[in-house]
Amino acid sequence: MKVACVGAGPAGLYLSILLKRQDPSHDITVYERDPEGSTYGWGVTYWRGLLDTLHEHDPESARVLDAHSVRWNEGVAHVRDLTTRHPGDQGFGIGRHRFLEILAARARTLGVRVEYEHETAPDRLPDADLVVAADGVRSTLRTRHAGHFGTEVTAGRNSYIWLGTTKVFDSFTFAFVETAHGWIWCYGYPFDDRRSTCVVECAPETFTGLGLDGAGEADGLALLEKLFAVVLDGHRLIARSGARGSAQWLNFRTLTNRTWYRDNLVLVGDAAHTTHYSIGAGTTLALQDAIALAAALREHAHLPQALARYERERKAALLPTQSAARYSAQWYENLPRYIHLPPERMFALLGQRHSPLLPYVPPQLYYRLDRAAGQLEALRRLKRWLGPKLARTAHGRTLR
C-alpha cells in the first residue's frame, strides 16, 4: 500500500512506524509543513499504561521514550498558603520536541520518508492509496470537507495559556491563588532535568479583571510570575517554545466529527477529536488512534471495511474519556464550589473531577460518600450505577 500521512505529530509518525513493522513493502511518506524541530508546546505527559502498550507494539521506540522521560508518583496541591500531598499512579513527562524526534528517527530507520516544510494543498491530496489527516485540530484536509465529516467545535468558558518554566517540579503540581478578581490556578509537571510545563487557567471575569486580556507578553508573564511566586520558587515563566512564536491565551475548543473518513482520507488524533487538556490524554489518544488504524488495516484487505472498523472501535473507546474530559473541564469552571473545602478534601475531589455524580451531590457529602465507598462494596456499586444515570438525565435536559 502507498500511504501519505499529512502531519508529523505523534499519530502520523507512530502510524507510519506500525505500518512499516507490519509490512516493510508499504510505501509511506510523512509530510510536515513546518521545519524540522520547530514543534510547538512544552512537555508531553503520559502514564504507565500507555508505556506498556507502546512496548507491546514497538519495543525499540518505547525503550528510547522510557529512557528520556522523567517520572513522578505524587500529586501536590497548593491552596493559598496550605499544601497537601497525595501518592498517585506513576506519571511520565518528556519534551514534545524530544518525543517527536524519537518517533521520526525510528520511522526513518524503518524506511519511512519524513519530509518537512512540505505544504499539502487541501484540494489536491497526495497520490496514495490511503491519505491520513494527522494535521491537528485546525486540519486543512478535514476543514475542506467539514460538511461530510460533520465537524462540530464547542469553545470552553475559561481562558488558559500553555507556558514553560525553569522550575523543575518534583511531582504533578497544582497551585490555586485567590485574587481580588477571583481565582487563578496553574498545573505543572517536569519534562526534563531543566524545565517543566506550566498551564495557567482562570475564569473570564478573572482574566479581564487582572488585565490579562490587554497585557503584552512581558507584562503578562511578570504578573503571572508574581501570582505564582511561591510555587515557582522565583523561577521564570517562558512563553516561547521553538520557532513557533509566543504562547497565547485561548479558550479550549472541543472538536468532534460525525464520521472519521471520506473515500481514502481518514482522520486521526486532534484532527478527529479533542479532549480537555486537564486530563492529559491528547497524546495518548493520538497514539491509540494510530494503533487501532494499523490493526484495522492489517485485518481487513478492503480499505472501506478497515476504515469503518477503525472509526467504530475508536468512537466507542473514546466515550469514557470524552465524558471524563467534559466533567473535568466543568470542575474547573465551577471551582468556587470546591475551593473553600479543607485542602485535603478539595484535592480528593480534584481527583474525582471526572465523576458524573460529583456535580449533583454537595461536595462535603460526596467526599464522605466516596470515603465510605472505598470501604463498602455496596456503596461502590451504587455510585457506579447512579453517576451515569444522572449524567444521561442532565445531558438530555441540555439537549432539550
Radius of gyration: 22 Å
Poorly predicted sequence stretches spanning 5 or more consecutive residues: none
SS strand fraction: 15-25%
Number of strands: 15
Q: Residue-averaged pLDDT, rounded?
A: 91
What is the overall silhouette?
Answer: globular
The number of helical elements comes to: 14
Major β-sheet profile: 9 strands, mixed
**What class, by secondary structure content?**
alpha/beta
**Order of SSEs:** EHEEHHEEHEEHHEEEEHHHEEEEHHHHH
Note the gap between the termini: 47 Å
Q: In percent, how helical is the residue content? A: 40-55%
Description:
With 400 residues, the chain is of the alpha/beta class. Helix 1 runs parallel beside helix 10 and helix 2 runs antiparallel to helix 3.
What secondary-structure arrangement, pairings included, does this model have?
Elements: E1 2-6, H1 10-22, E2 27-31, E3 43-47, H2 48-57, H3 59-67, E4 70-79, E5 82-95, H4 96-109, E6 113-115, E7 130-133, H5 140-144, H6 146-149, E8 152-165, E9 172-179, E10 182-190, E11 196-202, H7 204-209, H8 217-227, H9 229-232, E12 237-238, E13 250-256, E14 261-262, E15 265-267, H10 282-299, H11 303-333, H12 343-351, H13 363-373, H14 377-399
Parallel strand pairs: 1-2, 1-7, 2-6, 4-9, 7-15
Antiparallel strand pairs: 3-5, 4-5, 8-11, 8-12, 8-13, 9-10, 10-11, 14-15
Task: Quickly list its features.
nine-stranded mixed β-sheet; 42% helix; six-stranded mixed β-sheet; alpha/beta; single chain; 15 strands; 400 residues; globular; 14 helices
TL;DR of this structure?
By secondary structure, the chain is of the alpha/beta class. Helices cover 42% and strands 24% of the residues.
